[in-house]
Amino acid sequence: MEKFRFKSEVWTSEYTGIRANTIHAFLKALRHVHEDVIYYHLYRNIFEFHYLPLDYANSFAYWMAENGYYVLAEKLSVIDPLQYTNLEDIRLDLIKVLEESDEDLDVLCDKPFYFIRAIRMAVDLNIEATDLKTFVEGIKKIGWHSLFYHMVTARLKLGKPINDFSRWLENIGEKQLAEEVSNINLWAHTLREVKGKLISIIERRLYAH
Question: Is 1 inside a domain boundary?
Fold first, then answer.
């Protein structure tokens, strides 16, 4: 049977030195910044639950709202990073929203936007699973960064709209269980709650007989 290797992702934030005082400057920077800048500003709120108001699901949208661009804030906020399999597609959709805006993009904003990059590195935790029992034991051991890596970042790593856990479960013939894991709403729950749901779902299947 295929083994599952638990990994984690260590990431720190780094200011890029790029600041935008207008929507036009923001758009210009967005076209060229490293994709890990997009990762930082769109995925951070999933990881750090309640970091931003729930009305605005990413810091791009939150900045727009802070400066009174509420329509743009709404349009950027509905872009769900979990529906994408690569960061460049997200970049293109963000750019499209701004390019199609009727707003005056050269008006000086009250608050500037600072572009931050996530410096990321994946690490092996030396924890393996060969069946459901060792799999759920592994989930109980891992921390939030590992959980986030396998549930979220894996979609970008694999270039597929499926998380690592569900992919492995499908590969060992647990298709229904894989679907249950995929259906966990990462926006509606903290990572602590997600971990609890994962354990509950797998143990229910494991001890069903």
Answer: no
